[in-house]
Amino acid sequence: MTSTLDLDDSMQHFSGQSLRRRAETIFREFSKKKPKALQNLTVDEVRHALHELSVQQIELELQTEELNRSKEALINSRARYFDLYNQAPVGYFTLNEIGQITDANLTVAALLGIEQDVLIGQPISRFMVEEDSDSYYLQRKQLIKSSEPDVCELRMVMNNGSHFWARLATSAVHIRDSTPVFRVTISDITEVKNANEALRMSEKDFRSIFENATTGMVAADKTGNMRYFNEAFRAMLGYESDTLCGMHFTEFSFGDDIPGEMLLFGEILNRQRNKYRLEKRFITCDGRILWVDVYVSSQCGNDGELVGFISVVSDITERKEFALALAESRQKLRTLASHQEQLLELERKHIAREVHDEFGQLLTALKMDVSLIRLRFSDNAALMEKTEDMRVLVERTIGVVRQVASNLRPAALDFGLVPALEWLCEDFSQRGATNCRLENGGLEIALIDTQSTAVFRVVQESLTNVARHAQASEVVISLQADHCLLKVVVADNGQGFDISAIGKSSGFGLFGMRERMLALDGTLSIVSTPDLGTTVTIELPLSKGEAP
C-alpha cells in the first residue's frame, strides 16, 4: 500500500526536476529546428517573445500553485479515506483473481485475529472452513460473469483456530487489463446466527408441544377465525381438519355463551385487556354439548399491533357434570336436612305441648291435693312440715316443666317472631350477666312458621355463642324489613374472634346456622375482629304475603 509521504515525494520530484528536464529538452530540439528564424528576429519581435514568455511563465506558476493546492487536498482526502477505511465498523478487504488478500482494513484483521501486515498476501481460503471455502470459490467464479454483488453466510476460522459466522458481500471489479479483483465486506453475525438458531429451536419445541399436547390448542387470526390447531382440539369437536380450518369460534359455541365472550373478545380488540379465561359450552360436530375451560391470549407483532390469538382449551364436561351432580346432591341433602329440621320442630312443638299440658295438669292437681291436706290436718305440726316440703317441691317441678317446654319450643313463637325474640331477650338477660335488648322499631312481622322458627333458632344459637365465648356485657338484636327482605342483626361488644379460624373448627354451630338460612334462600354473614366484638347478620327474602 502506497503511503501519503511517498506520494508527496514523488509529486515534488515530478514537478521539480522532471518537468524542467523535459522543458530543456524540448527547447533544445526547437532551437535545432529553427536556428535561422531565431537569428533573424527583430528587436520588437524579441521583446514580444520575451513578453509572451513572461506571461506564460506566470501562467505556469499559477498552474503550479493550483496543482499544489489540488495535491494537498488529494493528500488530505486520501488520509481521511485511509482513516475511515481502517476504522470502519465493517470489515473491508480485496482479493485478487486467485483469492489472495491484497488489501484489508483493521476491522478484518481484528475479526481474524491477525496483524494487518501479515494478513496481506494470505489466501482467503486459509480463514474459511474447508467446505465453505469451496462454495465461496465457485461463487467468485460466477461473479466474474455478473455485475451484481452476491451475499453469502459462511464460517470463518480465526488465526487461533476458533470459528465464527460471517456475512460476506462480494462484487467483482475489472481493472486495466480486465483482470478481475473482488471487493468484499465482512461482518460477524455469530450472535444473530445463534439467536436465529435458538429461535428456530424454540419454534420447533413450541410446535412439538403444540401438536402433541393432550389439551386443545388453537391459533386464530385477529377476527377469531381458526388458522391452525392441534389434533386434541380437532378430536374434541369432531370436525375434519379442512372443515374446521377457517371457522369462526362462534360457529361452534353455544348460543347463550356467545354474548358474554364477545364482550371479552371486544375488550382485547380495543386493547383494554390482553387475555381472558372463561368456562363455556361447545357444540360438537354430532350435536353434543361440551363444557370447556378456555384461556385466550392475544398475539402482537413487532410493531405492537394485534395479529391473532392463542387459545388453550380443556374439556371439563366430566368435571362440570360431577359439579352439577354434587350441587344437586347438596341441594337434596339441604332439602332433606330442612325437612328433618321441620319434623324436629314439629316434634318439639308436640312434646312441649304435651309436657306443658299433661305434666302441668298433673302437677297442678298434686299441688291442690297438698293444699287440701294442709287444710285438713293443720293441727299436725309434723305433717304440716312435710306437706310444706312437698308443696315447694311441686312448685319447683312446675318451674322445671315450664322451662323444659320453653326450651323445646317457646310458646311465644305461636304468636310470631317479634314476641318470641322479646321472650328470648328477657330469658337471656335473666339467666346470665349479659344485658340483651331488642330493637324492632315497632315492626309487626308476619312470617310463616318455618321462617319464624328458623330465624328464632339462628338468633338463639348466636346468643348461646355469646354466652359461651364472647365475654360481652351487652347484646343488641335489631330487626329491619321492607316489602321483600327481612334483616336481623345480632351484635355484641365482646372479645370477638378470628374469622379465618372458623373453617378449621370441627363444630357444626355456625355451619348449622348457615344451612338453616340457605334452606329458605336466605344468607348469614359474620363479621368479627378480636377485641372489637362480633356481628351476625341474617337476610331472608319475603314473599308478598309476608311483608310487614
Report on this model:
With 548 residues, the chain is α+β, with helices and mostly antiparallel strands. The protein is built from 15 helices and 15 strands. The protein has helices spanning 4-33, 35-39, 43-87, 106-112, 116-119, 130-145, 190-212, 231-237, 241-244, 258-269, 317-376, 381-408, 417-431, 449-470, 509-518, and strands spanning 91-95, 101-104, 150-157, 163-175, 179-188, 216-221, 226-229, 275-283, 289-300, 306-315, 435-439, 474-481, 485-492, 523-528, 534-541. Helix 14 links the parallel strand 11 and strand 12 (474-481). Helix 13 runs parallel beside helix 14. The longest helix is centred in the middle third of the chain and has 60 residues, at 317-376. Residues 1-15 have low confidence and may be disordered.
Features:
single chain; 548 residues; Beta-Lactamase; five-stranded antiparallel beta sheet; 15 helices; 53% helix; rod-shaped; kinase; phosphorelay sensor kinase activity; HATPase_dom
